[in-house]
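Inverse folding, one chain.
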């Protein structure tokens, strides 16, 4: 059995918003092994990005309260000094975001930006005797980008969305991190490019034995690449388990609604038309019904909803099965 690389244990992230509390992430647990892809799935506003930022140590400094543990190997990232955490970013974990244009610097060439990432931890990035420039060219080629030498001198706005995302992946992987967090990496891309980027991530992951936490609202993406998944709703994980088990037998009505939103299954209806409504802002979570925050939007709600029996093969919150 491989050792767990990342383990979230009852992780909570609360923001102070005026006199209110936004419990954006509320006691979530999940784990990830080397070489594994775990998908974190849910509609916009569920707490997926806040979870990613918490792992990376990139949450705002003020008016934030965290609880629980984020174990990376034997180290609890929530207790780590800022400087140590900074060193771990890039070397041990990298992140890519939905819109690479906002993450890339518009006035610095592609090559120099990747080079900067390479130079943070040269001991991890460069092979013996290799120059940073050669490493950049190698990385760009590894990302499937053609003509790395001329690409090196170009600026982000000269690239297509798919190429920019490949550059972002090169930056995230420059120092061979053991964990990659991909936060909606293909949402801004059209379907063909989406597939290419997912295939690239899969190939790189297998090659580098990397663990990937893939954040998405799209069950189709999950089915293509994830080994296991957690479905998140209003700051909580409502269902988690192996991808195959959940695809064959989704338990929570929210998980089913995410499936129903897939093109082809929704018969042309808009996203989550099956249930309507949207995720309330995190400042309102305290006034949602307990224990099931999805209760008001759920078409199967009844008196049993306060109970939480376990599904035999994967863990789910809901008795509707
Ligand atoms: N810095 C912040 N201060 C207050 N609330 C925040 C902050 N960041 C995120 N939130 C709230 O936390 C909730 C989850 O946000 P987020 O993790 O970005 O959702 P997702 O990535 O699933 O779309 C939202 O209600 C959002 O408004
Ligand atoms: Mg997000």
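Residues assigned per position:
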């Amino acid at each position: 059995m491989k050792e767990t690389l990342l383990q979230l244990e009852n992780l909570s992230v609360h923001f102070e918003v005026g006199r209110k509390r936004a419990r954006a992430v509320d006691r979530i647990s999940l784990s990830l092994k080397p070489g594994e892809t775990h998908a974190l799935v849910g509609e916009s506003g569920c707490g997926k990005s806040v979870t990613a930022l918490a792992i990376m140590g990139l949450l705002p400094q003020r008016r934030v309260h965290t609880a629980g543990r984020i174990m990376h190997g034997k180290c609890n990232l929530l207790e780590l000094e800022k400087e140590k955490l900074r060193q771990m970013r890039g070397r041990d974990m990298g992140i890519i975001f939905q819109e690479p244009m906002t993450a890339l610097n518009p006035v610095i060439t592609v090559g120099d930006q990747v080079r900067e990432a390479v130079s943070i931890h040269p001991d991890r990035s460069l092979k013996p005797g290799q120059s940073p420039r050669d490493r950049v060219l190698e990385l760009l080629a590894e990302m499937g980008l053609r003509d790395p030498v001329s690409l090196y001198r170009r600026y982000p706005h000269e690239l297509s969305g798919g190429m920019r995302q490949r550059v972002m992946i090169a930056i995230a992987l420059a120092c061979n991190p053991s964990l990659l967090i991909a936060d909606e990496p293909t949402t801004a891309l059209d379907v063909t490019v989406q597939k290419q980027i997912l295939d690239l991530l899969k190939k790189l992951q297998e090659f580098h034995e990397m663990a990937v936490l893939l954040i998405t609202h799209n069950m189709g993406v999950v089915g293509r690449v994830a080994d296991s998944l957690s479905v998140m709703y209003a700051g909580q994980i409502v269902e988690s388990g192996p991808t195959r088990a959940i695809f064959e037998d989704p338990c929570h009505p929210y998980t089913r609604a995410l499936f129903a939103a897939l093109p082809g299954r929704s018969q042309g209806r808009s996203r989550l038309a099956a249930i309507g409504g949207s995720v309330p802002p995190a400042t309102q979570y305290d006034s949602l019904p307990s224990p099931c925050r999805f209760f008001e939007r759920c078409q199967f709600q009844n008196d049993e909803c306060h109970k939480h029996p376990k599904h035999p093969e994967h863990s789910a919150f809901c008795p509707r099965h």
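Confidence is low (pLDDT under 50) at residues 266-271. The domain at 6-92+186-196+209-316 is CATH 3.40.50.300 (Rossmann fold).
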